[in-house]
Design brief:
With about 80 residues, the protein is mainly alpha-helical. It has 4 helices and 2 strands.
């Protein structure tokens, strides 16, 4: 069972989603294999400031979409 919780800084998360072979990408892979990704209130607030004009639900959908794209079509994201 995956009991560990991981919080990624906004910059690290975005970097990991766009480049899975870099250090942030490898850290994200390891975190996903060992535990659960969570978002702190502070990081959620940062998402809102980084993506102005969007609400948190739409931001999470966008980030989830990027993550799914990386998983389902890794050759398109390199």
């Amino acid at each position: 069972m995956k009991n560990d919780l991981f919080v990624f800084d906004t910059n690290v998360l975005i970097s990991a989603l766009f480049n899975d072979s870099g250090t942030p990408g490898m850290a994200l892979k390891k975190a996903r294999s060992r535990g659960v990704l969570v978002v702190s209130d502070e990081v959620a607030a940062e998402y809102v400031s980084v993506f102005p004009g969007r609400n948190l639900i739409n931001i999470c959908r966008f980030l989830t979409g990027l993550l799914l794209l990386r998983i389902l079509f890794p050759m398109l994201c390199q």
